[in-house]
Every structure is written in structure tokens, then in C-alpha cells.
Amino acid sequence: RQISNSGMEQRKGRRLVLFPLPLQGHINPMLDLANILHSRGFSITIVHTSFNSPEPSNYPHFAFRFISENLPEDRRACCKTDLIAFLLTLNEECGPPFRDCLADLLSDSSEEPIACLISDAILYFTQDVAHELKVPRLVLRTGAASSFCVFSAFPLLREKGYLPIQDSQLEEPVVELPPLRVKDLPSIHTNDPEDLYKVVTSMVNQSKASSGMIWNTFQELEQAALETLHQQLGVPLFPIGPFHKRFAATSSPCSSLPHDETCLSWLDKQVPQSVVYVGFGSLAIISETQFLEIAWGLANSNQPFLWVVRPGLIRGSDWLESLPDGFLEALGGRGHIVKWAPQQQVLAHPSVGAFWTHNGWNSTLESICEGVPMICMPCFTDQRVNARYVSEVWGIGLQLEKGLERGEIERTIKRLMVKKGGENIRERVSCLKKKSYACLSRDGSSKQSLDDLVRHISSLES
Ligand code: UDP
User: Given 88, 392, 409, 449, which is the most exposed site by the fewest CB atoms within 10 A?
Assistant: First the structure.
């Protein structure tokens, strides 16, 4: 995604080194942030793993450095099967090549001096490298502030007996973190449950050691969580989101799959606010049984639907093999299935009336920014917290609480799309949409926070 040179500030003669976590939901916000800071006069170098790398020719205004982290093939593949083991490995393996890369950049006298490193919160090993090389590190957290409060409470949650999660306690409230229940606490399938605790506490502790944290959120949405974190972390916080709404995109966000542009022409033919857009992000995996319940729930809801079935979404299937023959044809064009959608454009389309989402933070924020109410089906980690906030705190969606069952799906879609109760939800999300625009305007909170961030970076001594 590129931005034009118009409105660009005078070059500052300082370079920022940005290092994203190499997963789609983390790379795109980091590239958006790079664009934002480039437009404020900083030069940008993106450091990236060779794994999942973006295409540098799409970003001619940035310099790229690839580190060879040499992850064994089985470790790369475990990004899909055991995400937490993958994150631990990245943190263990990337230290030496990243150190060499940063040292090399620092000694390059042909480039502008480096003001700071900005790295993803989950790449917590970068804090020690930055400290050793005397480069200030800012953290980008691509998730919500509310879910970070939960991560930051992990030691307390363990002490109080909520963690590790016991099946017998799932419905109980977490009294220290209302309105969460035990089943809303971050969890994920992993070979060693201790690994999640390790990743989370390292992420929080190394964020505390940083020179500040940048957030893809805005004050009006997460004021309470931001205040709590400000007290707990003791570093400056810069909520400057929503990133993707800061400039007119001239090309699509980076992704490993091409966008299926038929989505938009199909949406053009539908009635305003009638379509349920269904998409579960880049990592979630469901079983074949769940896939079929979703398919029948959508079919029985009588609403038109646009459904992203990413190859790899269904465990054990390549793509749509398990769908009964003639399933889509029998719906007479009411359903459209694609492999990957231009999601931001889809959500902005007037035909879309609801987003059935896994509540990854990017998807949640994109839905809020377009005023689209949500049906929440969190899969793992912070998605559970996001879903609870969407349904209970912000009141802008309904959560599928009783598992994935076709009758429940049909009822939930109808409650949101046709029944009266859906109107209040719609009103609340349009109100948040207005706030998400207002915060970026001249006197808006995110605009001011970005000014603060630029001043903060300029004041850092490396
Ligand atoms: N996305 C997209 N097309 C799709 C599905 C997802 O462009 O068909 C984008 C979506 O707009 C979002 C990102 O992929 O920016 C997914 O990030 P999120 O945090 O929601 O979920 P994750 O993939 O990290 O689980």
C-alpha cells in the first residue's frame, strides 16, 4: 500500500527501523505505521524475516533488509499447527541475525542516523538487542489495549487460580476483569501450555522496558484500558489508530493470497445492508463438521452471504470438497464463496449488513470503522477478549455462545439482521464509526497522539 507524496512533511533526516512479526495481521499494521511515519518526514527501513516476506517493489519508498533466520522447515510449518511454539522459536532464533543486521545499519554512514527501532510486541527478544546496541526501542502492539490488560494480568490470573483454565470453571466470572468469564481468557491449543504463559509474560515485561508503545486503537474506544495500562506499564502510550483509515489506499494490503475481485461486483447486485460477510482471518482453522454447520446455518438464514473460505481453513480439506454437491447452485446466487477478499473494501460496501468474524483485532477494528455490526466467533488468544468487548462492553455484536450449530447460527443471524433488537446494535456501531473518523481529524485524539509520538521520537537519544 502506498501513499502519495502530497501532504508529506519536510524530511527529518532520521531513519526508523521497523520490524514486524511475520504474520499477516501484524505485517499490515506495521506497514501502515511505516507509511504514517514516512509521511511525517522519517525515512524507513523495514527489517523482515525471509519467512512470509512482503514484496519490496510494492513499497519503493522504504528500504528493506531481510534477515536469514534459518528456521527449519518443521518450525515454519508449525506456524499453522502450534502458533505459540512458532513464536517462541522466532524469539529464540532471530536474535543473532537481527543483531548483525541492526549493527550493520547503525554503522552505515551513507544513511541517515537511526532514531529508534519499532518492533512488534511479540518480538520481545528485540528489546535486549536494542539495549545492547544502545538504540531506543518503541513497541507496536497490533492488538487491542483491552486484551493487553488481560495479558498483563497473567501472573495475577495464575495466582488466583484462573490459569491454567479448568473446563469446570469456564462459565465463572473473572471478578478482577469484568465482564470477562473464564472462557473469555486467552488460550490456544499448544503442545506445552506453559509456552503461552512464557510468550505473554515476556511480551509484557519487555514492553515495560521499552521507550513507549504505539497502539492501533483510539482513546474514545478504549479509554479505560489505556488508562490502566498507562499506570501498569509506566511507559508513554500512543493510541494513534485506526491506522488503515489515515490515508487513501492506492493498492491492497499485503497478503499471500490474491484478492478475489468478484466480491465487489457480486455485492453491487445485492440489497443495501442485506449481506452477511463471513471471514475468519489468516490463521484460524475449523473442523469439517463446523464448516458444514456454518454452511447450513447460512443457507437456512435466508440472508445473502459472502464467505471467505481460505485454503487451509478446514482441517484436512484443500478447499470446498466437503460441501454437498450443488449446495451453492441450490441457493440461486444467494451465496458467494471466495478464497480471499479485499476485506476493507467489502466491509465498506453498502450491501454488507453484518460481519461474522473470528474477532482478530484488525477485523474487529475494520468492522467498527465501517459501522458494521458483528457476529462473534472467537477462535483463540485475544480474539476471545475482543469478542466479549464487542458483545458486552461496546454492544455492537452478538456472540455465538452455544458452539457452532446450524439452528443457533440461523437464529443469531436473524436476530441481528431482521429482528428489532438488531437496530440498537446497529446504532451503537454507527456511533463508534463516527468516533473512529473524528479521532483522526485536526483536533482528534489520535491526531494529537501522533503529534506526541513524532515529538517523542525526535527527542530520543540513540
Ligand atoms: N483479510 C483480508 N481478506 C480476507 C481475510 C482477511 O484482506 O479475506 C485481512 C483483514 O482485512 C485483516 C487481516 O487480513 O486486516 C486479518 O487480521 P486479523 O487481526 O483480523 O486476524 P488474523 O489473520 O491475525 O487472525
Answer: 392
Amino acid at 192: D
CA 371 to ligand 1 center in whole angstroms: 17
**Residue 397, SS3?**
strand
Length of the chain: 462
Instruction: Decide if the complex's ipTM is over 0.85.
Output: yes
Confidence tier at 338 by pLDDT (50, 70, 90): very high
Whether residue 76 has pLDDT greater than 80: no
Pocket of ligand 1 (CB under 6 A): 24-25, 28, 253, 255, 279, 281-283, 308, 340-341, 343-344, 360-363, 366
Residue 418 has pLDDT above 50, yes or no: yes
Query: Residue 95 pLDDT more than 80?
Result: yes
* Ligand 1 atom 6: residue of nearest CA: 281
296: buried, middle or exposed (CB in 10 Å: 19+, 13-18, 0-12)? Answer: middle
Task: Look at residues 38, 41, 77 and name the one whose alpha carbon lies nearest to residue 61.
Answer: 38
Average pLDDT of the chain is: 94
Q: What is the DSSP string of 170-214?
A: TTSB-TTSTT-BGGGS-----SSHHHHHHHHHHHHHHHHTSS-EE
Cα(150) to centroid of ligand 1, in Å?
22
Atom of ligand 1 nearest to the CA of 253: 7
Ligand 1 centroid–CA 10 distance in Å is 33
Q: For 33-64, give the DSSP string.
A: HHHHHHHTT-EEEEEEESTT---GGG-TTSEE
CA of 35 from ligand 1 middle (Å) equals 19
What was the pLDDT predicted at 250? 47
User: What would the pLDDT profile of 156-186 be if each residue is shown by its tens digit?
Assistant: 999 999 999 999 999 999 999 999 999 999 9
